[in-house]
Write a structure and sequence with these properties.
Helix content of chain A: 25-40%
Largest sheet of chain A: 5 strands, parallel
Structural class of chain B: alpha/beta
Number of strands of chain B: 9
Structural class of chain A: alpha/beta
Number of helices of chain B: 13
Helix content of chain B: 40-55%
Oligomer: heterodimer
Shape of chain B: elongated
Radius of gyration of chain B: 24 Å
Radius of gyration of chain A: 29 Å
CATH class of the largest domain in chain A: Alpha Beta
Strand content of chain B: 5-15%
Order of helices and strands of chain B: HEHEHEHEHEHHEEEHEHHHHH
Number of domains of chain A: 3
Shape of chain A: flat
Largest interface: A-B, 42 and 42 residues
CATH architecture of the largest domain in chain A: 3-Layer(aba) Sandwich
Number of helices of chain A: 15
Strand order of the largest sheet of chain B: 2-5-8-1-9
Number of strands of chain A: 9
Strand content of chain A: 5-15%
Order of helices and strands of chain A: HHHHHHHHEHEEHEEEHEHHEHEH
Distance between the termini of chain A: 42 Å
Chain lengths: 389, 293
């Protein structure tokens, strides 16, 4: 059974190693988590998953694999005597409700629950439809439905089924839209490469140390130079079709701002032309010529362009194609200049990746970027950061 | 409740939280697995959710000695094992000190060595491992796995008398290598929900007025919901704030959300640590007030 689970996890995209799996088996052998599936779930998670971003994926595989298995551990609510339960049941629910609940079998109950979880937007206590504490709904803590499912985190003594079905770690999965915290974690990938290169700096403590070891004869030690920070040049698309993605871009911007000491940002509209700007309110009066940008910031800056790249193909490939002004040179030319100056460059696109092939302008820009276009999701950002570093 | 006079004679082997630390079920499961199998446990989570405190509380509840190793950006893995003070030896040799003939005099034990030598199984806290260099965890692989290491200077192998319970915390500033992760149990401390939070506050301030606590928690969670905050207030900030509220004897009514006169919650300095955040919050309140009119 567990071997199957192991392969399911690997198939589900979790890189579970054999040693970790053996650790889990050893833990089970030692008698940890014998009587409760909750405990087994927590134990398995602690053994097999080493990144909170993957909790959600684990939850899904676990739910799929152990669906129905919980009967082995005893049906939900088995700790409560049947008679008492029936009594409460008679007392609390109207005939209509009872009929409704009995009509639902386990699967239906779970499906309804899932639907309600999706519907529910805010915390709720009491009432009879939503999930919350102290309600008469079959779902929720303190409900009396014999097949009721506890939603809530305080375990108490009773066995609670399907904690994993809540998917509390949902917003950590890397195919989901981002919050700044997640973004920062992804951007941190760039940080680790800050201390690499040739050893060309005198390592003073190292030299003293090795000289002392060498009985007082001088022995010089060198270390690589320490680059204090990664430098980033961020170009953000604003207006038009980007309005749908303002939030994602804001998050990217605020995360990047707090993450990099050397961050320069500029705005553009749809495609990069001869002028970019730093302040959207004064975009028509205070434009910075792109040439100045190219000259001012050296090639060791890493270039990140964020935009949906959704426009008419003319805006990229034709002179005068811009929707806002008459551009003497094509957008493609300016893109090529940018890329020639900054060899480390990526394009982050908030549009879903599946849609890219259907939009000609995205295809064109992706080609210009030499396929270095990534979706603006955690996973995409990580791929992008790997490309940059 | 006193923790020193336990009625049962058997040593405690299961960790379930203490009188001043609330451990959720998933956390105690992970900790107990690590204790039973003698493997390190890696703890991640938002700052201020009690990662460091966990090690102290494990040591306290299982009645084990606690050794701490706080990691800085300059910390080397070797320093946790031992250091060879070559400079002191050089100086001694020039002064003609007799100690110089025994290299063992210049070996300074690190926290891991200390932990390996304890008479009973100790708890070793390796705090904020992500602050160190990227290679740091890799340098400790064998030591964590086999719980032994070799001292080159004196040609001796130090083997742990009891496998220490190693608690490692990380703030996720750097990614840890897979080989390292594979050797650890992992737990992510989720931000506590309202029910857990009430329990946490309860162990810190027993007898706190219920209505004050309720009002404070509402304010706190509402504050956490404010979009765009740079640093969301965490558990430890809430506890500090409650202490201030208690000290100032603030009435629960002052915290109520419908009171428009109070612009910011009282003593907000304990919750919002960033000037931009305070500014943002003020602006939001201003907007709400205008809408309400």
């Amino acid at each position: 059974m567990l071997i199957e689970f192991f392969y399911q996890l690997r198939k589900g995209g979790l890189k579970v190693s054999l040693t970790e799996f053996l650790t889990l088996l050893e833990a089970l052998k030692q008698g940890l988590a014998q009587f409760s599936i909750d405990e087994f779930y927590y134990l398995a998670r602690a053994c097999l998953v080493k990144d909170e971003a993957l909790y959600d994926r684990f939850d899904r595989v676990f739910a799929a694999h152990f669906k129905g298995i919980e009967q082995v551990f005893g049906p939900p609510g088995a700790a409560i005597p049947d008679d008492w339960l029936r009594q409460q049941f008679e007392r609390i629910f109207s005939d209509e409700e009872k009929a409704l609940m009995q009509a639902m079998n386990w699967d239906e109950l779970m499906d309804t629950l899932r639907k309600r979880l999706e519907e529910q937007k805010e915390e709720h206590h009491g009432g009879n439809k939503w999930i919350g504490t102290g309600g008469t709904s079959p779902f929720g803590q303190g409900g009396y439905n014999p097949a009721g499912v506890r939603i809530g985190s305080r375990g108490g003594q009773r066995s609670a089924v399907k904690v994993w079905d809540q998917r509390e770690y949902r917003n950590f999965d890397d195919s989901v839209e981002l919050g700044t915290r997640n973004l920062k974690v992804a951007l941190r990938r760039l940080r680790r490469f800050a201390r690499q290169g040739a050893a060309d700096e005198l390592d003073l403590p190292g030299t003293i140390d090795s000289t002392a070891r060498n009985a007082g004869y001088l022995e010089i030690k060198m270390v690589p130079e320490r680059h204090n920070a990664t430098k980033v040049l961020l170009f953000l698309d604003v207006g038009g079709s980007m309005d749908d993605h303002v939030r994602a871009c804001e998050e990217l911007f605020s995360a990047a701002k707090s993450e990099f000491k050397h961050l320069e940002h500029f705005y553009f509209h749809n495609c990069v032309y001869e002028g970019v700007w730093k302040d959207n309110r004064r975009r028509h009066t205070e434009k910075t010529p792109l040439m100045d940008v190219l000259h001012k910031y050296p090639a060791d800056y890493k270039l990140i362009l964020a935009g949906d790249a959704t426009m008419s193909p003319y805006e990229i490939t034709y002179a005068g194609g811009s929707v806002e002004h008459f551009n003497e040179e094509t957008g493609a030319t300016w893109m090529q200049r940018l890329l020639a100056t900054y060899p480390k460059a990526i394009w982050l696109n908030p549009e879903p990746e599946q849609r890219w092939t259907h939009t000609p302008s995205i295809r064109i820009l992706s080609e210009l970027m030499e396929q270095r276009m990534f979706p603006l999701t955690l996973g995409g950002l990580e791929r992008g950061m790997r490309e940059l570093s | 409740m006193s923790d020193t006079s336990r009625p049962d004679q058997h040593p405690v082997t299961r960790f379930t939280g203490t009188d001043r630390y609330i451990a959720t079920e998933d956390l105690s499961t992970a900790v107990n697995a690590a204790v039973t199998l003698g493997r390190p446990i890696l703890i991640k989570g938002e700052p201020g959710t009690g990662k460091t405190q966990l090690a102290e509380e494990i040591a306290r509840s299982l009645e084990r000695p606690l050794l701490q190793w706080h990691i800085k950006s300059t910390t080397k893995a070797q320093q946790g094992l031992y250091e060879y003070d070559a400079v002191a030896r050089l100086r001694d040799s020039q002064l003609g000190d007799v100690r110089v003939h025994d290299i063992g005099n210049y070996i300074i034990k690190g926290p891991m060595w200390e932990a390996f030598e304890q008479d009973q199984q100790p708890v070793l806290l390796i705090d904020e491992i992500d602050k160190a260099d990227i290679e740091f965890p890799n340098d400790l692989l064998r030591e964590l796995d086999r719980m032994e290491f070799y001292v080159y200077e004196t040609h001796q192998t130090i083997v742990a008398r009891h496998r220490p319970i190693i608690v490692i915390t990380s703030n996720n500033e750097k990614e840890l290598p897979d080989a390292f992760l594979r050797r650890c149990f992992f737990h992510y401390i989720r931000f506590p929900d309202a029910a857990t939070m009430t329990a946490i506050v309860d162990v810190h301030y027993p007898g706190l007025k219920q209505e004050l606590l309720k009002a404070a928690l509402e304010t706190f969670y509402r504050l956490r919901e404010v979009p765009g905050l740079k640093k969301k207030p965490s558990t430890s900030e809430l506890l500090d704030w409650l202490k201030l509220l208690l000290a100032e004897d603030i009435a629960p009514e002052t915290l109520r959300s419908d009171d428009r006169r109070t612009v910011l919650p009282p003593m907000h300095g304990a919750l919002l640590k960033n000037e931009q955040d305070i500014h943002l919050f003020e602006r939001l309140i201003f907007l709400h007030q205008r809408e309400g009119r």
